[in-house]
Amino acid sequence: MSDFARQQSEFQRGILAGDDTVLAEIIDGPHEKREVLFGVYRYAYGSRLVEAMRNDHKLLHSYLGDEMFNEMGYAYVAANPSQHPNLRWFAQALPEFLKSSAPYSNYPILSDLAALEKALNDAFDAKDAPTLAVAYMAGFAPEVWNDLEFMAHPSAIRLDLSTNVSAVWLALKNDETPPDAVALEEPSRLLIWRQDVTPMFRELSAEEAMMWDEAAGGIPFGVLCSMLATYDDAEGAAARGAGYLHGWVTAGLLAGVSGDKGKSGA
After folding, report:
1. Burial class of residue 118, CB neighbours in 10 A (0-12, 13-18, 19+)
2. What burial class does residue 5 get, using C-beta atoms within 10 Å of its C-beta: 0-12 exposed, 13-18 middle, 19+ buried?
3. How many CB atoms lie within 10 A of CB 59?
4. What are the Putative DNA-binding domain coordinates in residue numbering (predicted)?
5. Which of 164, 237, 244, 169 is nearest to 204 (CA)?
6. Fewer CB within 10 Å, N or C, the chain?
């Protein structure tokens, strides 16, 4: 390793890990000690990363306020040194950090809010893909429907969260005072996706969440309807399944379907 490369490595360790070895390579300035001069770089590094987190989690920032968000942000920076040249991906582990690190883990709304914002960001950045149209689905012959399998749009993300995060998110989005955070008896089942160019989400019933999860895993429509029969009226299972499917298609949640050979006129 060249002397310059060694100095770069020590400088990086000094920034990322707090290693002071690099101070031996720095001379005091005319007005400040080397510790102060190098501290400027350390502070700028953390400040830039916290700013990136603030941009990615604007509603979490609004919920916590400047002081608490900055305190949380620097704690995250210390625990998760940047590993990617693109700052867009720096805060990817924030929901898990808030869920597992005290004192933030004592307030589940924080990790839930971070998880929802992350999912909306990820949906916005997801790959493009064509979406199914209702007219296209109408072309399948009735006898092949049981065997149809569906492919979720690349932007679609499912989350199970433990608080009333939807109500808190909506209030913050509308610049309103959010309701008190409440732990739910059952999880809030959310489906997040990008419709056209707009990331969005909605809550699902337990039944629809089950059907979505299984459909996204490649379970054919006929089996899905059999599974729906265990949730409610068995005779209405097929109709409920068709209703859920119609909603997914019109929302742009599906990017593909098997069974083209079974289309009418094919």
Report:
1. buried
2. exposed
3. 19
4. 7-98
5. 244
6. N
Backbone angles phi, psi at 139, to 5 degrees: -80, -5
Residue 48 binned pLDDT confidence (cut-offs 50, 70, 90)? confident
Which residues, at least 6 apart from 131, have a Cβ–Cβ distance to it below 8 Å?
153, 249, 252, 253, 254, 255
Residue 116 Cα distances to 9, 36, 197, 248, angstroms: 37, 39, 17, 20
Is pLDDT at 225 greater than 60 in this prediction? yes
Contact status, residue 240 vs residue 232, Cβ threshold 8 Å:
yes
Q: Which pLDDT score is estimated for 231? A: 84
Query: What integer pLDDT is reported at residue 7 of this predicted model?
Result: 46
Question: Distance (Å, rounded) from C-alpha 189 to C-alpha 208?
Answer: 9
Assign domain 107-266 to a CATH class. Answer: alpha beta
The tokens for 177 are 């005072």
Which spans in the chain are helix H? Answer: 3-17, 34-56, 58-64, 66-79, 94-100, 108-125, 134-137, 165-173, 206-216, 221-228, 237-250
Report helix, strand or coil for 254: strand
In the chain, ranges of CATH 3.90.930.50 domains: 107-266
The span from the CA of 12 to the CA of 213, in Å, is 43
